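In this section we walk through a basic example: taking a raw amino acid sequence and producing a predicted 3D structure, encoded as discrete structure tokens. The instruction is simple. Fold the sequence below.
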Amino acid sequence: MPKSEKVKMKVPKMVPSKTEEKALVKVEKRKLALTIIENRKLLKSIAKKISIAVICVIAVLYIGLMGLISTSVFYVSHLKNDLIQNGVLINGISVADMNKQEAINYLQAQLNQTLPETVSLQFEEDIFQIDLAPLKLKFDVEKAAEEAYQIGRTQNVVKDLWDYVKILNDTAKIEATLLYDEKALNQALENFAKELPEVKQYDYEIQNDKLLIHKGKSGVGLNTDELKSKILKNLENRKQEQIKIPTYEILPEEIDVEKIHEEVYKKPQDAYFTENPITIYEPIIGVDFDVEKAKNQIKNMPDLEEYSIDLNFTNPKVFIKDLAIFPHVLSTFSTQYVNNPNRTTNLMIASNKINGTIIMPGEYFSFNQVVGERTISEGYKNAAIFVNGEVEDGLAGGICQISSTLYDAVIAANLQIKERHNHSKLTSYLAGGKDATVVWGRYDFQFINNREYPIKIEMSVQNGLVTASIYGILSNEEYEINIESKQVGTKGVYVIYEAYKVYRQNGVEVKREFLSRDLYK
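The resulting token sequence is shown next.
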């Protein structure tokens, strides 16, 4: 096949005719005219809008200028008068158009004169009242009125004018400060806190052979700062509602058995004395208890309020009565008795109870306490006694001879009498004024060891004599002392005796003291 050949073709160039050129020119001219017309409309619209904006700006400036001029006029007027500006509130109370003094007087009536006299506090179901008078409460209305008056008067024209305008559209709120005596308020709250249940710590006591441990109880603490804040807030807001007391629980300490043991434990110690000068040390009875057993008891029974722990006691080997510290006979006195079996039995029982009694310096002796109640179970018998001045049989008859004999020995030892009563009728064994009767639950015979050292009483009933002897240590100044009495008159069916305590040295009387004036039927 013959090779293909490339064929080149010429395209004729298109040239518009003159008619066509004229038509195109007309079209272009029309488009240009339309564009010019549209642009003119746009320019007119823009010009119109610019004119309105300018007018608005001018109007706003005019109104603002007129407002500023008006405001300035009112502001200048405000500076020239002494009135507080409109829109000023003090604690929510309007003081507008008042001068300072008028505002102060008005606020005094509205605030200070309406302050409550008390504040009510509530704790659980209880209501407490706190007197507010000591707090000297008052609002500082003078300072608040001055602050209100100074609004717009600081001499700073821009600031004053701005504040003036701002208040016209709003309000100025000023809070008068509540003044009070803080020390008095703290004291009032401290006193009130004492009204709340106090925490009770555990404690213990010894009863017979038991250690009783009492569990502690929770208390209530006062949140003082919070309560103070609530009270002041109520007062500042002029409210008189009850305030619920803010409190917290105070827990007691856990029972410390180890600590209790340290305090209770005592090692037994014998009585002893030292010389130059003589000092007597009393015996100590040993006390102990099982610590682990007590701990387990408390741990296993946590709900108990009281725990009973067994105590173990160990007696010392030597007591004061066993010491050789009573070398001297301070006094001795005897009375005779008739050997009536029942009466003699009573004398011996009472005498034996007193015999060996030791009284330390400053301690007192009580016949009823030492001898105890006179009962059949104690072995007492019926014997003659005085009842209203008459003789009749009664239980433990005759033991007043023991108390009377001891009375004379006590006087002779120069000991101090605390209680003594005479019989209703003269006795057969002592003269009037020298006796001392005792009746269980009514009359007692008591004396005090006012000497420097301990004394020991020895009593015996034998061979027709009741004897009371008092032993101890002689002092540098001792006397021979006895009771002297005599009948000084009568009074109806009664005879009157006076008794004196007579002091002698080497048989010579040096002084006497009045003891008693007694009536006997």
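Looking at the output, two observations stand out. The radius of gyration is 57 Å. The CA atoms of residues 297 and 317 lie 33 Å apart. In the next section we compare this with other chains.
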